[in-house]
Design a protein that fits this description.
Number of strands: 5
Shape: globular
Number of domains: 1
CATH class: Alpha Beta
Strand order of the largest sheet: 3-4-2-1-5
Largest sheet: 5 strands, mixed
Oligomer: single chain
Number of helices: 2
CATH superfamily: Cysteine protease Prp
Strand content: 25-35%
CATH topology: Alpha-Beta Plaits
Order of helices and strands: EEHEEHE
């Protein structure tokens, strides 16, 4: 199962995404659920860095582990909010459609 944490700061603004695991919907290389989650998270990373010009703190560790965080100073910007909110909503929808394979939860950062 892919577990995704959508972190919000103390002002209820999205502040980071963390994903771990594999969906297990199909064999590795054919798992469209896992690919969808991965594509959304990578699109967020690219959208923030390439389109919005945000200095994202991120890492891709083992296959299936990705974390990205963006600075508090940009969390109010319309472009940043549009990117991260769209990705968060999309991930939550995938979790609704594939509850045995994707779990998404929201947490509050301790800032």
């Amino acid at each position: 199962m892919v577990e995704v944490v959508l972190r919000e700061d103390s002002r209820a603004r999205l502040s980071s995404f963390l994903a771990r695991g594999h969906a297990g919907w199909a064999d590795s290389g054919s798992d469209v659920v896992c690919a969808a989650v991965s594509a959304l998270l990578q699109a967020a990373w690219l959208g923030l860095t390439e389109h919005a010009g945000v200095d994202v703190d991120g890492s891709r560790r083992n296959a299936g582990d990705l974390e990205l965080r963006w600075p508090a100073a940009v969390r109010e910007r319309d472009d940043v909010r549009a990117i991260v909110t769209t990705v968060a909503l999309s991930l939550e929808r995938i979790a609704i459609d594939y509850p045995q394979h994707v779990r998404v939860r929201r947490e509050t950062d301790r800032e």
